[in-house]
Amino acid sequence: TLRRRIGMIFQHFNLLSARTVAANVAFPLELAGTPKAEIDARVAELLRMVGLEAHAAKYPSQLSGGQKQRVGIARALATRPQILLCDEATSALDPQTTASVLALLGKINRELGLTIVLITHEMDVIRRVCDRVAVLDAGHMVEMGPVSEVFLHPRHTTTRRFVSESEHVDEGEQLRDFAAVGGRIVRLTFLGEGTYEPLLGRIARDTGVDYNILTGRIDRIKDTPYGQLTVALVGGDQNAAQAAFVAAGVHVEELRR
Asked: What CATH number is given to the structural domain containing 33?
């Protein structure tokens, strides 16, 4: 059945407190009627994969939160599922432990070729490990696409709110702050190696436009760098400047004409 092809990782681990680490990982295999020799070999393999081979005989009460989640991951992989469903798998963890668990999930994805579905409200988790994202609002999917597209060019109001909150930006407040600034205001989004190109200086020289930089940031989506600048265009041929940015692969969003 479909359910047997899905492994599940829970927010609060859901480990059996009376069973050791090894016995927790073995549990779904026991339910499936797997021979003991196969169970022992599979458990040893999985504990090596998640870095817990030295903790096989310990009980959940003796583990840290990150270690408990690694046991949960090993247990979810025990029956060789095709899909790994992670329900808020990092929301109960501190930032450092979250990073280590995400690194482990990335390794599993690469080495096992396993599809991982993350359910999370943590935008940073999506930015760091996911390839595609779907945004749900009141039970309806309101936006879906590659993470870079959805994060950098959100269309739905819910998505825009999520992204703004994750970046600690209040767009309405920003625009009010910009009221005293003259010129056309645009947001420039650079993706990939273009993030580090000196485009502003070249386009300023070519078009006679001066730039007043209002906000700026550089970050990464998975392994890809991106940069965003909010600038006011002053003087010169502003239409030509915008066209030059677009021709160079920069996404231009006009915030104020």
From this structure: 3.40.50.300
Q: Which phi and psi (to 5°) does residue 20 adopt?
A: -70, 175
* Within a domain: 156: no
* CA atoms within 13 A of residue 33's CA, in its CB half-sphere: 0
Backbone angles phi, psi at 233, to 5 degrees: -90, 130
Residue 255 backbone dihedrals phi, psi, to 5 degrees:
-95, -30
d(CA 134, CA 243): 31
The whole-angstrom separation of Cα 101 and Cα 11 is: 12
> d(Cα 204, Cα 48) in Å, to the nearest integer?
56
131 in a structural domain: no
Give pLDDT tens digits for 141-186. Answer: 999 999 999 998 899 999 988 888 887 666 677 767 788 788 899 9
Instruction: Identify whether 201 is part of a domain.
Output: yes
Q: Both tokens of residue 72?
A: 């949960």
The residue type at 244 = A
Radius of gyration of the chain (CA): 24
What is the token pair recorded at 70?
């690694």
231: DSSP letter: E
Q: What is the pTM of this model?
A: 0.80
Spatial strand order in the sheet of 115-119? 6-9, 83-87, 115-119
Assign 3-state DSSP to the chain and report helix, strand, coil percentages, each to 5.
45, 25, 30
Which candidate, 108, 54, 122, 102, places its Cα nearest to that of 76? 108
